[in-house]
Amino acid sequence: MSEMSRRTFLWITGGSSIALATDQPRKLVNKLIPKVIPPEEITPGNWTFYATTCRECPAGCGMHVANRDGRATKAEGNPAHPVNRGALCPRGQSALQGLYDPDRVTTPLYRTGRKLRPKSWQEAFDSISNRLASGGRVALLSSLQTGAQAEVLRAFVAAFGSARLLFYEPFNYEALRAAHQQLFGLPVIPRYDLEGSDFIVSFAADFLETWGSPVRQARQFSDGRAYRDGGSPTRMAYLGPRLSMTASNADHFLQVSPRQLPVVAAALLRVIMDRGWNRNDLGPVRPALDALLKSSPLPALDQEVLLTVGRAFTSAHRPVALAGPQYGGGPAATGTALCAALLNYAVGAIGATVDFSRPHALSSSARDAELDLFLSSLGPQDVLFVVDANPAYARTAAAERLQGAGMVVYLGSLLDETAELARWVLPTDTPLESWGEYQPEPGVDGLMQPVMGRLYDTRGACDILIALARQAGRPLRTARGTAPADLLQWLKERRGFGGGDQAERGWQAALRTGGAWPATPPASGTAPAPRLAGISFQAQRPTAPARIEDVELWPWASIMLYDGRLANRGWLQEAPDPITFIVWGNWIDLHPKKAAALGIESGDLVQLTTVAGSLRAPARLTTEIHEQSAAIGLGQGHSALGKNARGVGSNAFMLLDAAQRAGSFPPCRVSRVAADAPRPIRTALCREQLHRDLLQSVPLSVLRAANPPKEEFDLPLPEGYHADRDLYPPHEHAKHRWAMVIDLQRCIGCGTCAVACYAENNVPVIGPELVADGREMAWLRVPPYRVPGSPWRYAWLPLHCQHCDAAPCEPVCPVFAAVHNEEGLNAQIYNRCIGTRYCSNNCPYKVRRFNWVNLEWRKPLDLQLNPEVTVRQRGVMEKCTFCVQRIRQAQYRAAREGRKLQDGEVVPACAQTCPGGVFTFGDLLDPGAQVTRITRGDPRRYHLLHELNTKPAVTFLRRVDNDVV
Asked: 0.85 cut: is pTM over it?
């Protein structure tokens, strides 16, 4: 008889013998981790926060990543970082899904034939270094890098006598840089400062989504739009072919086809000049403007609207003009950007809202011609290193050119389309496992540090290159002549933290801060002098008589997927598009008139064809796209990358190539395909309010009246109850009555709050099939509703559990799983719930979710789960809890410190990450709390479905209709 340990004996005699009898494969896994010599930086059960820099896009926001017992579980914004001030976008929230991606490459791979086979690191280093030592010519293509990483990459190619290094980004703002080169001699992307800007003109620049630095711009825009007594909110005009999320936030939307954008921009500039509204002289530009306006007929526009926009733009104190899109170049896009730059010069915005002294890091990314030359130069003697870039996906014909290199070595974390072409695939750390730095603009030096230990046998990309150079007999050296062993040493030396106690203390302080930047933003630099005399617009190429099937293509960048690099993340695939609320795929937008002429109906499978290629996707018929255009979202249609991305949607990049990019907006042919189309999956079927007044608004003039009207409002407190109409008695709350205020005027519809809720509360990703069946699990949704009386305006209603004081869900639960707790929360006790779903049937807000199936957390995604939140199983109802785990943590912390809980100390995940500052959370029993002041006194307050008398704890603040000029 084998010996039985005391632990096993107690486990079995404690009743677990039943489990062994019924589940024999079960193994004893409940092991204690010895802490005889505890780790210095880990306290079991405590949260540790690491400051780092987000690298999910080139914006470079600061992040705090929460770590519990060695696992990173939540990404949040760094409040001290000057770019994002504590907020994040959906892509930043999803960084952890990149870290825990089940499809990550975990070991070096070598291609033999068509298959990639595992190899050791030593085998990889031996093979590649021997090729380098034997005279292989080095070429290196990388995603955008700055600071120490950029220095290592430059040193690597220089060590082998090469200068072929490009930083490749699919969105390189080529048109904007070309325009600034022509006007100012500066081919850069300036810093656009919307802080205090009172009028914005956007020429198809979706600056609230993917253009520029979206989180910073969204925060500045929402601050400007916020209602203030006596102040005027920021106003915006948007000119473009498609009603994007940014366009729907505008006061004026002028629908203009892609090729007409520069003409309309020139017309606006001409209106300003003719009326003498410009502050700076534009006389030398007049002949070029006249030539452009004569080359293309001005589209039919409401001239009064154009006049209104011009007057408002020139009379504003801090106006700014923005030009998109961020991909491609060519006459139309460059002409539009040039007109936007001239508008900024005309009103004195250069040096104020447009700062050329702080160019964006993307200014150093490769232009299209540079990339074409780079790819064309590859030959059999070349060893091409590709670092975290995927040109084979985003660039037609790139795959064929990449295969012209003698050896392709891919350094990255996923097997994307470019990695599938490589001889060697070397797995790299993700940004959350890496050391490094990133400088989105001069003066902002963000540090990157590992927020947890490595999951797999991966290495930093720069560490791999340093090791390869050393093994090939070409050790890399810094500017000081030293040869660091890895990127961390290189980084410390570059930043002046080489050695000694004082240097180490400075290094630790920088790590805690997340980098280095000035305490107050520096003043704008001197405005560059324009070269007006040399301005010229390239005339539009005359087009052949248009056929009925011809349209102008308009690819647009998704706020969730960006350029496609993040398409394998379930949170982002399941997060709805802000306008259509479609998930898991993309679609083609066509105008109903164009569709009727071609015999296309909504949902039909449609083919788009350009000189570069073709794709198929379901059609969505809408007046939100110009009649002569067809729009499709970028970022989908991967043939590799991972399970969540492969085969989902269509790749719009395949319609673009180098020859076409010269035109930026290519001619495209539309045709109906006689085949079944994949049905677009929507999680909100209706965008009309149907006279229910869900999303309410109030004119600004009414708010400014001496006695604004007051409407009936019942507080979710005993004083809000009335014996003559209330069926249930009021609740008495001993210490707290938690409540929330949602300012609809600030909400831009980005959906960041919903993704943060997924991350914080272990909300599962259920996949396209179950979502299509109506089984979505999101606790918080931000559906769009059409603004009454305006065909071009949508507004968004963040909606989660309202934590009603007279909650209809509570009395119908037969097992008391839905209960009202002592602090006013409508709690859901999972181990009581038997799944009758009576509570969901009785909830007028429809914010409860039922687990229909047991969902699998693909390993290692289970490591991201928040240990403070229960993981639910099939048959259980769930919903928003106001992040009760955060409430309890704040209460425990205050109790340990022997003090009262402070207002603002409890911040739910949605409120913490919101770029617009939409959410305010606090205790209604605290008379000094901000949530109390707003709930009791704001003239815009209302309760959703107030007539049902549920007394919600969530107070909405009405949107403000800006009817005052």
From this structure: yes
Confidence grade of residue 662 (pLDDT, cut at 50, 70, 90): very low
- pLDDT for the residue numbered 26: 37
Token code pair at residue 949: 């008398």
- Range among 476-485, 543-552, 582-591 rated most confident: 582-591
Residues 6+ apart with CB under 8 A from 650: 586, 615, 616, 617, 632, 636, 637
Please name which of 440, 398, 439 lies closest in space to residue 417, comparing C-alpha atoms.
398
Burial bucket for residue 248 (CB in 10 Å: 0-12, 13-18, 19+): buried
CA 321 vs. chain centroid, Å, equals 23
Report the 10 Å Cβ neighbour count for 111: 16
**Res. 609: pLDDT tops 50:** yes
**Helix, strand, coil abundance in the chain, percent, nearest 5:** 30, 20, 50
Nearest to 596 by CA among 522, 672, 528, 668: 672
Structure tokens at 721: 């109850």
**Cα(744)–Cα(319) distance, rounded to whole angstroms?**
24
Q: What is the pLDDT of residues 253-287, one digit of tens each?
A: 999 999 899 999 999 999 999 999 999 999 899 99
- Terminal-to-terminal C-alpha distance of the chain: 90
pLDDT classification of 5: cutoffs 50, 70, 90: low
SS3 245: helix
How long a stretch of residues is the chain? 965
Q: Give the residue from 751, 748, 710, 715 showing the smallest Cα distance to 733.
A: 715
- For 736-764, the pLDDT digits (tens) are 999 999 999 999 999 999 999 999 999 99
CB 230 within 8 A of CB 267: no
Taking the C-alpha atoms of residue 654 and residue 644, their distance in angstroms, rounded to an integer, is 20
> How is residue 841 annotated by DSSP?
H
Task: Tell me the pLDDT tens digit for each residue of 612-659.
Answer: 899 999 999 999 999 999 999 999 999 999 999 999 999 999 998 754
Amino acid at 932: T
List of residues 6+ apart from 296 with CB closer than 8 A: 259, 260, 263, 540
Distance between CA 326 and CA 894 in Å, rounded?
48
Q: Do residues 326 and 634 lie in contact, with contact meaning Cβ atoms separated by under 8 Å?
A: no
Q: What ranges in 692-739 are assigned the alpha helix state H?
A: 700-703
304: its two tokens: 């009064």
Structure tokens at 172: 């390189």
Domains of the chain in start order, with CATH, are 109-163+364-516 (3.40.50.740), 174-362 (3.40.228.10), 550-682 (2.40.40.20), 697-805+882-961 (3.30.70.20)
Residues 386, 412: Cα–Cα separation, whole Å: 8
DSSP-assigned beta bridge partners for residue 681: 583
Q: Partners of 646 in the beta sheet?
A: 638
